[in-house]
Amino acid sequence: MKKFISRLVLFILIPLPFLFVLNFITDKGLHKSNLPLFTEWNDIYASKANADVLINGSSRAWVHVSPKILDSALNTNSYNIGIDGWHFKMQYTRFKVYMQHNKKPKLIIQSLDMTTLHNRSDLFQYQQFLPYLNDSIIWNATMGYRGHFNDFQRYFPLYKYNQNLRFIKEGVLAYLNHDRNPHVKYKGYQGQDATWSDAFEIFKKENPNGSEVEVDRSTCEDFEAYLSYCKQNNIKVVLVYSPEYYQMKPLWTNREQIFNRYRAYAKEFDIPFLDYSNDSLCFNTKYFYNSQHMNTTGSEIFSRQLAADIKQYLQN
Amino acid sequence: MLFNSSAFLIFFPVVTLLFFLLPHKLRWMLLLFASCFFYMFFKPEYILILAFTIVVDYYAGILIEKQETHKRRRLYLLMSVIANVGVLAVFKYYNFINTNITGLATHFGFSNHMPILRMALPIGLSFHTFQAMSYTIEIYRGNQKAERHFGIYALYVMFYPQLVAGPIERPQNMIHQFHEKKYFNYHNAVSGLRLMMWGMFKKVVVADRLAYITDPIFNNPHQYSSLSIIMAAVLFTFQIFCDFSGYSDLALGSARVMGYTLMTNFNDPFSSKSITEFWRRWHISLSTWFYDYVFNPIITTLRHWGKAAVALGLFVTFFLSGLWHGAGWKFIIYGVLHAVAMIYEFYTKKQRKKIFGLLPKWLNNGLSTVLAVTYVGFTWIFFRANSAKDALYMIKQAAGFFKGLKANIHSWLGDMSGLEFGFSKMGIYLLLIIFVQFITSYQRKEKLLPSFTSKKVYIRWAVYYTLVMCIIYTGVFEHKNFIYFQF
Questions:
Q1: For the segment B74-83, what is each residue's pLDDT rounded down to a tens digit?
Q2: Are A265 and A138 in contact, with CB atoms under 8 Å apart?
Q3: How far apart are CA A123 and CA A126, in angstroms?
Q4: Which of A159, A194, A207, A292 is at 20 to 30 A from B255, Cα to Cα?
């Protein structure tokens, strides 16, 4: 038995140093990779975001608000940390990580949508968290979702890249400064050169009676904690509801209830709520690629308008 | 507990280590406790059903042995069989029978007020019920003495490696092993772990990966083209083999590490040249169970019927085998299709030999294998489809493949893009299937192990590392159940 156990231990130990080194190289490489999935996290962790004006929110923030336009109009330094597919819980997590590694912003543009206060059940685009599983903020924030990570993924070298082996290759290449991925985002923003798709028609067909958004209590508590934190730390917050295609509005069956919540938050924390859901942009499909997301043409017009309104707010 | 779960990664070494550290007289307790824990990991309350079967058959065994008249022995056997089949009838077949009664009653203008039983089927129920039944039958036949040690008998039914998906053991093979003192054996431990590794590879690297393609198609056949349906049927043939034989390898391997020998459940089934041969190579423990306790008694009792007895025996056996797999018409059709094929093979044996004998041997063998495996793949459409209706739809769709071939290929390409199953992935899957089949065939010829173990240690370790790395880094660990757990 001794012989067996010693051989088994040896069998396990021999590859471990190599795997740990490769894991280290992969993580480090991905930390500086240009892969769109990681760029905002990488900028945030590397203290490269360091913004005076921070744009936070979901994909609607990510594709609607251009830091380039804000920077030139407001003569400032802005960064967009909008996170695709996620509601406020993960937006808050990203904000917490931002605050840990970057300077405090003077202003936050908090992009809202109908599902901001909802919470999803699955770990959407879980791959984006892989190089950062050792950070307890990320670890704790990803718990409780369907398909959440386990200790084996956290501690066993490279196991987290199971099913995603291409990231090992990408990580090693980036570590060796051979990253061939182009930088497709500008300070977190990525305009979408897309035209109106049939997604809205499909949605209408599948939901003839519209859709009701479930408000998650714990997400609301997080949202309140976030606004309180900003108030205590003298960070100005502007709540922004960017344009959505007008025909979608009646299909949100509890739209008014959710908007009342946003208005109540604005009142409670004494912050402005800029609602662009009746803006002229909302009535033309040429500015959108689906009911919730504007394309580059729409987002650039909107960003200029937003910059002007923020300027006015700051001047007052 | 699933073999492919992180819990088992802790459970297995702890139990095995404790097994060898404990004195022999305490080992049955450890194994019984571990087996209860293993089973209760799924749904704790179902252990009560298992306990019922164990208690009934334990006493039935002793009572059968004690009786001096054949009539009384038979009475106790009957009671035991009724108790076991009763458990199956209640938990597995009640709703099926009830739904069919409702259907019939409605058809004739009546109504059925029997309530529907709302509970999940206890995991592995058919396996341990059949294993328990073989115990009392063997005592009745005088091939096995009744076990007086309740713990050892309970262990015979509950031994964790084969508790939920077999192999369905016979008392003659297992009970004496639990009485024997087991010593640690280096070669057993190594070959057991090697077998487990191979089983795990087949399960998580091949079977669960194939499920990514087969599951969506079988679950929504109406959304897929003819070619996609044919492809799903072909892939499922290999998926179920890798899934079930993977489980059996894990069971055999984990038992072998502790020095226990379980019966072989698979012997390169895809090299079969007929359906009859297929059932000698596929799920051997179930086939032999049905052979010993259903087919053989039928043909012995009806031997004066001549060939018709065999035909009837085959029909009843495979009808029951289909029903054993699940309570549903699709499983019954699956069983009947195999019965029909085997009856055909039985009646046409001479003629086929004559016709196929005209062909060169290699062509004869190749053609027979292709025909047999294709037929098996066809029957698996019924096995895997969500209902008999879905299966019939799939067959109808697949049959229309040549109608509008160009359009069909175009739709198939669209389906594959939707499933993110490009040509490079197809190539990898194909290589995996060929690799598994190659190793399986080589294993059957008993050439693999002697040549492998005679290789230098660094070559062996390189192979082990490659397999382990494939399992860890490319395996699917989404806690996918083994397909046969549902039975």
A1: 999 999 999 9
A2: no
A3: 5
A4: A159
